[in-house]
Amino acid sequence: MLTLTKTPYYSPKQNLILAALPKTDYERLLPELEFIEMPLGWKLSESGDHVNFLHFPVSGIVSLIYDLENGASSEVALVGNEGLVGISVFMGGDSMPSSTMVQSRGFAYRLSRKIMKREFALGGQLQHLSLLYTQALISQTSQTAVCNQHHTVDQRLCRWLLTSLDRMHDNKLTVTQELIAYLLGIRRESVTAAAIKLQKEGLVSYSRGSLKVLDRPRLEMLVCECYEVVKQEYDRLLPHPSFR
Amino acid sequence: MLTLTKTPYYSPKQNLILAALPKTDYERLLPELEFIEMPLGWKLSESGDHVNFLHFPVSGIVSLIYDLENGASSEVALVGNEGLVGISVFMGGDSMPSSTMVQSRGFAYRLSRKIMKREFALGGQLQHLSLLYTQALISQTSQTAVCNQHHTVDQRLCRWLLTSLDRMHDNKLTVTQELIAYLLGIRRESVTAAAIKLQKEGLVSYSRGSLKVLDRPRLEMLVCECYEVVKQEYDRLLPHPSFR
DNA sequence: ATATATAAGTTAGCTAGCGCACATAAGATT
DNA sequence: AATCTTATGTGCGCTAGCTAACTTATATAT
Fold this sequence. Notes:
Two copies of one chain form a homodimer. By secondary structure, chain A is α+β, with helices and mostly antiparallel strands. Chain A has helices at residues 16-19, 23-29, 88-91, 113-121, 125-150, 153-168, 177-184, 188-200, 216-222, 225-237; strands at residues 34-38, 43-45, 53-57, 61-67, 73-79, 99-104, 106-112, 172-174, 204-207, 210-213. In chain A, the strands form three sheets. A four-stranded antiparallel β-sheet of chain A has the order 2-6-4-5. In chain A, strands 1-7-3 form a three-stranded antiparallel β-sheet. In chain A, a hairpin with a 2-residue loop joins strand 9 (204-207) and strand 10 (210-213). In chain A, helix 5 (125-150) packs antiparallel against helix 10 (225-237), helix 6 packs across helix 9 (216-222) and helix 7 (177-184) packs across helix 8 (188-200). The radius of gyration of chain A is 18 Å and the shape is globular. The model of chain A has no long low-confidence stretch (mean pLDDT 94). At the A-B interface, strand 5, helix 3, helix 5 and helix 10 of A face strand 5, helix 3, helix 5 and helix 10 of B.
């Protein structure tokens, strides 16, 4: 199958942080924003890399991942168009032990490290929104730490699906069970088993890397509290689309 | 046994962030800093509380904890005199879903929310150091997420011991197995079993809430990589005692 | 000295998730 | 149509950590 991957147009305002900037800040930033594609599997940065760009996704999903020496790993957070990737640029540490990988193809606007630091130092809305987003990210990561330890694979898969779907603004995901397993830090077979349960219940349909959610309300019944806790915190802290 | 808990004197400079401030910043802050005791078990804040003070520990350890509805919980980070408690004050979110509890008795200087926001807005060293510390905290939390999922109770206990000892600047801890179990999100019996192994190997001695490390080098052989990864990141990002 | 409370140690199933080896099926390629 | 590749499904034994009920030891209080 030949998949046409045309480049659609996205406004920077599709990213909710950029969209929430005051007009003057936004317009000063606009010429500095570079539009780029984020292909599936692309690593925006590896553990310890000096991070040179701050990315503002307008579509797609980026995963923040921690890898262990023995090959095991866990995704600690998901980022979509509500957020940004590369907090070490403005937090001051330049790099992070996590790596960042595109989990669902999409597009982003990126800002050079230099410009971001200059803007951040102004102490305006971009600083404020970046820090609020970082706090939301900390909550997501922390909740993931508890969830990894105490909830079942079934529950965690539901949470991952819902969290991903929220960022796709859609009921479809293009992702193999192999990739889900890698991100959740579990065996591929465990994903298969959990996915079969969901299919038998008619909650999702799944075939060779394309997953469709058929009954979202019932998925939300199955998911652990972690999904809602994080969502509430994002709603509390972050700007929403202006049409809301 | 009657334990005398006199209040010793600690300089604010026992906190490494305060100690790293330029003279003028430090002196401007000094009259605003209030010295307080942090008794064992004290909750600096509960989940969702509006946080009114930023705490700079000079001794003791504070745990950041996430609780689940079913009573399960996990500690997501430890804070000692290298850091601060209450990032939501300057990150802008006012509250966090985590709660903060004193895990080892100690003392701290606290700064009111109002003053901290004013200082942070100046964009000086306090802002810079606070954000660097927050980045380090994110790394600790993220590593905990992976560690919780992939490492054994034995490894995680070692990591917890070493991380705690680093913050006590000592080889002793006053903590029951019950409390350790709560913090690690595991059963008390699992802590007993792991502690017995360590005692049989002569690595620690443990009796009714007082634990002493006898052979730290060998503890460091047993611990998972997570300990060292986080330590390296703290060393890279944060200020060190000036005598180093 | 004795009683009481709290901390730590013991024992016996149970189960979720693991590692590993293999089977089937759906697109893609020729 | 036949073949190949990649994604998904299955079976089986193993073990860490769990629930649960209980015993022992140490410090403190009377």
